[in-house]
Design a protein that fits this description.
With about 550 residues, this protein is mainly alpha-helical. It contains 19 helices and no strands. It has helices spanning about 10-50, 50-70, 75-90, 95-130, 140-165, 170-175, 175-190, 195-225, 240-275, 280-315, 315-345, 345-355, 365-375, 380-395, 400-425, 430-455, 465-495, 500-525, 530-545.
């Protein structure tokens, strides 16, 4: 580690500066991927709208994503990265890389068997369903995309290795390939197969599988430069004590993350059962929410997990606390205005992005998706803060606490989902599902914060609560200003009560600029310290970069 000034303040700022620097890299790369993800959903909206076929595709794709969350960037990665980071620190790079080979080999063996079994089971399942059942629609897509689960889990584990090695850029850029291949396939195959939507969606399913393979291959050269050789070794895997330790750590995390992801699947299934258009509407809304969440919330979690793992390995709990509190304050400043803006401008945002002349995304699709976006919007702040809290437990190799918390969240979410589907009117049932996700995540986040607070004042509420409250209040003021400005823009620019696409863009640009000015001014007035903190981190980053 490079020499740092002897003062305590400077010593505390150094890791935070490194975290912010790494976060900026991850955020930039993730932003590229998220923007492409939004572009792909725009293309999906144009060709498929909120059709049952689009919803069925989303339903089929959620299954391999369940495995990705569970075995890829979820339980396995959360258990693997701390042990891999510890091995790097205490045993050296060669030992850590040999250990990684064993983990990947076990992953391939287990998921390979699960994938084959899953594909085989789709045929008897189809035989049990009525010939006119809407549940038959996703099965052909599922057969094709299930192997993607294996490929993306391997890719996610490779990304975890790169992050632990400090190679954040390549790992963060990897999801770019999925979106790129997806978009190219849509733009080429759908026009060529116009009028054949069933064939279009099958071709797209094969493209997803190809993207999974591309994500694995993309990362191997960077790992090769670090000394890694991708060779599967299946003999005596469980004889490695570190691998057994990963499995031990993974078990509670798998349960916890499995609960969360099964919950996600249940949300999609309930939505499809309630309304064939609902899963598509939820997906379009989620994609917009994921853009700032991926750029900042997920970026922070990606960087914080190996950071907390290293700090825990050295036993510096005070430094972990300071890093966490700084991350929470920065996230609150960034995400609060995003939540507020998407809440009050849900319909204009949805219409601007997805409603393209000549496409299948019509006014009904816009209203359904906007309702979902407004319900998801408050969760943007909640989700991001939760992503900052969870890596602390993983870094401490305490995977049981998040499991217990997620089980409570599961019970709450399922209860609220079922209630929403049962009592809400048609066209609003999916809104209840989105709102249930936000409420259960809020409960989870509060419980995690309280449990950290009980760890010997590991998390000081006073160090975070003020920043969060200030950011929320300033964001609320910004939201009122944004509504007023957008209404004025519509009045000035509308022709015959409607806005042309160019006028929509102009109105939104003016609204965003005005909102940013109001939020920045309000934060400067009531919470100047948080802004100074972020500016100071950026300045220190530039200074050290130029040194």
């Amino acid at each position: 580690m490079s020499a740092v000034p002897d003062t305590r303040a400077e010593h505390a700022q150094e890791p935070a500066t490194r975290v912010l620097r790494a976060v900026s890299v991850v955020s930039l790369m993730t932003a590229v991927s998220r923007v492409l993800g939004l572009v792909r959903e725009i293309a999906m909206a144009y060709f498929f709208g909120t059709s049952a076929l689009k919803s069925a595709f989303d339903l089929a794709f959620v299954i391999p994503n369940l495995f990705r969350r569970l075995f890829g960037e979820g339980a396995l990665s959360s258990a693997f990265v701390p042990v891999f980071s510890e091995s790097l620190v205490k045993e050296g790079r060669d030992s850590a890389l040999r250990f990684a080979v064993r983990v990947i080999s076990l992953l391939v063996a287990v998921l390979g068997a699960v994938t084959v079994l899953g594909i085989l089971l789709t045929w008897p399942l189809a035989g049990l369903l009525p010939s006119d059942s809407r549940w038959l629609i996703p099965l052909p897509m599922l057969r094709i995309m299930l192997p993607y689960a294996l490929l993306i889990c391997v890719a996610a584990l490779l990304s975890g290795m790169l992050n632990a090695l400090g190679r954040f850029a390549i790992a963060s850029l990897t999801p770019f390939l999925l979106n790129l291949i997806w978009i190219v396939t849509l733009c080429v195959a759908c026009p060529l197969l116009r009028g054949l939507p069933d064939t279009q969606i099958i071709v797209l399913s094969w493209a997803i599988l190809a993207a999974g393979l591309a994500q694995v291959l993309f990362q191997l050269p960077a790992l090769a430069r670090e000394g890694f050789r991708f060779r599967l070794k299946f003999r005596a895997l469980l004889s490695d004590p570190k691998l057994r330790r990963v499995l031990t750590l993974m078990a509670p995390a798998a349960l916890g993350i499995g609960i969360i992801q099964i919950n996600v699947c249940l949300d999609k299934f309930l939505a499809f059962w309630a309304d064939p258009a609902a899963p598509a509407a939820l997906e379009y809304a989620e994609r917009i929410v994921y853009l700032p969440l991926g750029m900042f919330g997920t970026a922070f979690m990606t960087v914080l997990l190996p950071t907390f793992s290293r700090q825990a390995a050295t036993g510096d709990m005070t430094l972990m606390r300071e890093t966490l509190e700084r991350a929470i304050r920065n996230l609150a400043v960034i995400m609060a205005p995003c939540s507020a803006a998407l809440l009050v401008l849900a319909l204009p945002v949805i219409s601007l992005i997805y409603n393209i002349k000549g496409g299948r995304f019509d006014e009904t699709s816009a209203v359904l998706s906007a309702r979902a976006l407004a319900a998801y919007a408050p969760g943007l702040l909640v989700f991001s803060l939760q992503k900052a809290l969870t890596p602390v437990f993983y870094g401490l190799q305490d995977l049981k606490t998040p499991v217990r918390v997620s089980m409570i969240g599961l019970v709450l979410n399922v209860t609220l989902n079922v209630t929403s589907v049962a009592v809400l009117p048609h066209g609003w049932k999916h809104v209840g599902i989105a709102g249930s996700t936000v409420l259960s995540s809020l409960v989870n986040g509060v419980m995690l914060a309280v449990l950290l607070r009980r760890r010997g004042a590991f998390l000081r509420m006073a160090g975070c609560a003020g920043a969060v409250v200030s950011a929320v209040l300033c964001a609320a003021l910004m939201a009122f200003a944004a509504l007023a400005v957008h209404a004025w823009c519509r009045h000035v620019l509308a022709q015959d009560g409607t806005l042309a696409k160019g006028a929509e863009i102009a109105a939104m640009a003016v609204t965003v600029a005005a909102g940013m000015a109001v939020y920045g001014g309000a934060m400067a007035a009531v919470s100047r310290s948080e802004l100074r903190e972020m500016v100071g981190d950026v300045r220190r980053r530039k200074t050290r970069k130029g040194a």
